[in-house]
Hints:
Elements: E1 7-8, H1 18-31, E2 34-35, E3 47-51, E4 54-60, E5 67-68, H2 71-80, E6 85-91, H3 95-107, H4 112-119, H5 123-128
Parallel strand pairs: 5-6
Antiparallel strand pairs: 1-2, 3-4, 4-6
Helix pairs in contact: 2-3
Amino acid sequence: MGNENGxxxxxxxxxxxxxxxxxxxxxxxxxxxxxxxxxxxxxxxKQEARYSGSQVMIRPAAPGTGVIAGGAMRAVxxxxxxxxxxxxxxxxxxxxxxxxxxxxxxxxxxxxYSVAQVRGISMDKVxxx
Length: 129
């Protein structure tokens, strides 16, 4: 689940009925919400991540490209609010592992403001050296 404005979370719910399983999954996802940097409808930089047998690569794209991703990755990227991105999954296509690998890749993203803050320098110095 996500708010399409840079916040996303995932959860797993098990039950004998589909509606109660979905409710449990949503409840679990609300406990695991994280903030993702989204700049002008795309991500700040290229990132790769791995979870178990699934490996994912996400790359920023130009405006008008759309979300080029499949299945579980598309759902995660759209719920974050990313409008233009290129994504590829390698290895296992298990949806649970793909979601976890995609969220892991998104968590490793850093925008220029946070990099400047960590380094203790101005934004101008981040870009111009």
